[in-house]
Sequence to fold (910 residues):
Amino acid sequence: MKGDLVLSKAHLSYWLRQLRKEADLIGPLRSTDGDIVFSSVENIHDIVADGPANLPCQKEFLFPQREEMYKFSPKGTERTGNHKKRVIFGIRSCDVSAVGLMDTFYGGQYEDDFYMERRKNTSFISIACNTPDSSCFCIGLGTGPFLKEGFDIQLTDLRDRYMVQVGSAKGRQMIKGFGHIFRRPKKADYDDQYEANLSSQSKFEKRITLDNVRRKILAGKVPDSFWEGVASRCFQCGGCVYQCPVCTCFNVVDWKDGGGEKGVRMRIWDGCMFKGFTKMAGNVWPAEQIAARTKRWYFHKLLYWPGQSGKFGCVGCGRCTITCPGKIDMATVANRLEKKD
Amino acid sequence: MAGLASAFGSGAMTNSISEIADARVIFVVGSNTTEQHPMIAMHMLEAVDRGATLIVADPRKTQIAAFAHTHLRQRSGTDVALLNGIMNVIIGEGLVDINFVRRRTENFDEFEKVVKRCTPEVAEKITGVPASDIQRVARIYATEKRSMLFYSMGITQHVTGVDNVRSCANLVMLTAHIGQPMTGLNPLRGQNNVQGACDMGALPDVYSGYQKVADARARKKFESAWRRKLPSAPGMTMIDMFDSALEGKLKAMYIVGENPVMSDPDTSHVIEAIRKLDFLVVQDIFMSETAELADVILPAVTFAEKDGTFTNTERRVQKVRRAVRPMYGAMPDWKIISELSKKMGYDMGYRAAHEIMEEAALLTPVYGGILHHRLDAFGLQWPCPDADHPGTPFMHRKKFAKGLGTFNPIEFTPPDETTDMAYPFILTTGRLYFRYHTATMCRRTATLEREEPECFVEINPKDAGRIGLRSGNFVKAVSRRGEIVVKALVTDRTPEGIVFIPFHFREAAVNLITSPAVDPVAKIPEFKVCAINLVPVIPKPGERPKNRYNRKEDLKILNELYEEPEVPS
Fold:
């Protein structure tokens, strides 16, 4: 593709170090306990660029679990801003696609200031995934393992070098002035990239196309009893919602101080899987039964998202598969629905 | 604890969580596993998916009971009769593992005499469980090799708590379902570190690793390590402490991370006892109902602000590492205690948690090889006697911790309080999924608070119809000790004659009415059985219905204690 570049792995840390001068660099780091977490990079050599596919979700950086919105006091309110520039390195293709979905939700018909402010200040350097694990199914949704568009910069690991693809103005900004470390790709580079892509595709264990599932639901072939069966396994832990890179629900709460006169208005993650999420005045609980809630979650992702934006509200990252204690995650349910007549 | 110790010589889950998924029979007695131990329930459901048989004995129809192939709904407080009935069938039908009983256990004959009397028909009369179900469960449990037995507070929180546990122990020994993987007797411990607290000797009669205070040799070891003379008599249990405080014998109390005003039975009695004290110190992470009464409050840190270990229900000692800086000068519990001790003239001289662990390993045989540097990946399961030992996934393999396992002959005894004309309902208390214990923590979380905002009483539709109650109506729950007002929730989850109230809510603190009766050995209160009456609160014509719980006049004693909680709305 026109504009593609090649970066030697030896030059990666130099490049990132230069980028870090302009913005906060976030990357996957191995904590002392062996877990990989995304956090601010102190030492560039600590970045785990070839880690597993199931990394923590980047949602935290655009839509924090707990976000201050306003400070209030008898004098008035004050909007809390977040203008920190960030470069997030090392997220996978599925999560880049998820950011795209988040953008259509928070930046679509109603623009969410808090999200958009963070989004504007954040650029991504993503890695085309060559390490899918048993829970991944992005391949069936076209949200991975490598992307044709929607990324800022996409790197493909070619053993001793990266293929660098630039997909947005933010991406171009990040390579500007670094002509001395990037070079134009040769045929051998494209061959290696093609091979990397093929090898990635062959590693997927799950082949799920949600289209069939959607059609089945629309054709009325999925009775409520199916959802009751699914819901009977729901532990209401909210793990699916909190881990999902596409789930956007939040609740607004006030943290009061000094006798309730001043405080902070916060928004915190919420989940439609909770009974109280739709609680109404007069003690009305519209979705009191768990079945109604699990069904709504799946319908939102499988029917309402495609209805509104043409894309499924799922990117196949497989995090719910790893998290769900009741084994009623998207992949499992979709598989069961697909087999169902 | 005491029950298991007398049967096996050691009190903890005998087997491991990872074995559950491969079990063939899972027998759950008195545990609301899906709500209270969801991660363990996950393994149980996995086993069910793989074809295991799930048996649940619980008067309430809990979520786990909905998955059960057989659900035994015994009357509250009749577990001994139920288990004796099951064992009677096992003995009667020749399903006993004679080899195991001869080689590994003692006192079988005495035990057999008692069980022989409790035929399934007798058990049916006492428990209300059909004799045919008892027979079926006995056959399923005894004939399958990989049968795991689980129990929790539904077994222990009775005046017969220790008897209940011993009966469970009898059952696993009778069928040799112990000492092998995918078998065993598995008490599910609630809190993240309640097992660890017991292991470290936070009990009145033992040092760490269940070494008896009364044992002169053990005492000598601790005396030489701590360079102090130690008392030879066991200390008091919590219940005894409150009693003697009330009598004026106990003058001061130091409570660490507990909220007895909410969690102990007969709240008024507890508060009265605390008021009698000359001096009360409470060490906790948040303000609690008990801390309100304290003379001194010592702020401790939360789990995320400290280093150390937690021991989970399967005896696995796991490391916890500080993730955030302690707030507002709060200190880890060990530091508070050692600073205090220094001020009182004994310098413990610890500089970090791993130094304490080193001492614990030195003095505690079962923790002998458990040192911080070995715990990094998955932790270790005790018994782990030395630094090369890989830990023990299942216990009592070749012999029991005390040598031979002991059969304890247990006769059924009814609960302390029985129903009568004035108090016709059995009240059983318990917990809710979105609430944790006395709610000192979860009440500060907006989402959890929203999920279960109100206290309620679960009542069977037939009972509700009889007293003219509908869901959402206010009802007064009256016992011999007091009364509270709660909302009714009409549901068939609870059987006829039994009602259920969660204990997390201070505006309807159910422990104002629970029975102070305790097990004579373990001193665990009988939270699961108390006789009450329900009186619908009907507003008079023209009067506006009460729209909140117990007003000041109803709940004088608790209301004096606190202002409205600062809850994020």
Q: What stands out?
A: The domain at 425-559 of chain B is CATH 2.40.40.20 (Barwin-like endoglucanases). Residues 547-555, 562-569 of chain B have pLDDT under 50 and may be disordered.
